[in-house]
Design goal:
The protein has 329 residues and is an alpha/beta fold. It has 3 domains: 45 residues, no CATH class; 237 residues, Aldolase class I (TIM Barrel), CATH 3.20.20.70; 41 residues, no CATH class. The strands form 5 sheets. An 8-stranded mixed sheet has the order 8-9-11-12-13-14-15-16. A 3-stranded antiparallel sheet has the order 1-6-5, with no helix packed on it. Strand 17 and strand 18 form a beta hairpin. It is globular, with a radius of gyration of 20 Å. The two termini are 32 Å apart. The chain binds iron/sulfur cluster. Keywords: 4Fe-4S, Iron, Iron-sulfur, Metal-binding, S-adenosyl-L-methionine. This is Radical SAM protein.
Amino acid sequence: MQRMALYFSTLENNKIKCELCPHHCVLEDGQVGFCLTRRNQDGAMETLNYGQITSIALDPIEKKPLFHFNPSEMILSVGTFGCNMKCPFCQNWEISQQVAPTKSVSPQQLVSIAHSRGSRGIAYTYNEPFVWYEFVLDTSRVAAKEGLYNVLVTNGMIEREPLKLLLQSIHAMNIDLKAFDEKIYAKLGGDLKAVLRTIEMCVEANVHVEITTLIVPGVNDDLSHLEKEFQWISALDKSIPLHLSRYYPNYKYHAPATSPALLIEAYRLARKYLDFVYIGNLWDPEYEKTVCPNCGTVSIVRRGYDVEIVGLDDEGRCSKCGREIVRIF
Ligand code: SF4
């Protein structure tokens, strides 16, 4: 399925500049961008992955992870190939760092699949959805028109204008904040300022936001950097849920998995600043449960993807004190 790309400008000698993400790739005729998904074709930009799906599954929404948005639902989850970052520890490198086999689907077909599988929403996940921009935009518009909600699981690397447009049909996001340091971001092929701007814009647009930080030994495990991150999130909104996730060796990075002791130390530090903090990939219910920050009532108990809502009313408020805990769409 061919589709011309949005957000590029033409330069001299048939060159073009992509303006979708902060890399601003300048491409000669025939050249493909850093993300593997956008090509200069005769002086115009075409997408290489429009409607191309590498993975599709019905997942618990907690797997995204989203803990405070429609808890305990299953959601149709889809991904393509490509990414605009190059993390050596990528957990999904088979589809993010190379062109992978795909099946074609149209926006309307994908929305029909969501309906037929009983999903009330669609999650664009597994690889970076911003490098699938045109397909996510078209599909999320069709889905929203038909009463479905749309979720992005993203690294946050996008320019202001395309984000503004896409947010009109997005309801919830989990955004990776990989480190709180420009130099670390640059090594991973990213841009900290752009990611922070994305988080701010999403909060401003009243899109539900959760943040994930994968704690990788030797990369971003400095507690003083992490504390700055927690302070920054807290200043924006201390009720943004934060997932501190355990790294396991993968792709080109082979350091041992993050120690549970470090994760727990980071968790305790984060809790000083934030209302809702979780540890991912540790599978310890103590660090997966939701507790009302106002009155201490346990709202949700989780054992992995086994989710039990124990202290919420129908509108997602604490059943004891009425404090808003989760968003229900
Ligand atoms: S979206 Fe891809 S092609 Fe466009 S600037 Fe970013 S990395 Fe380059």
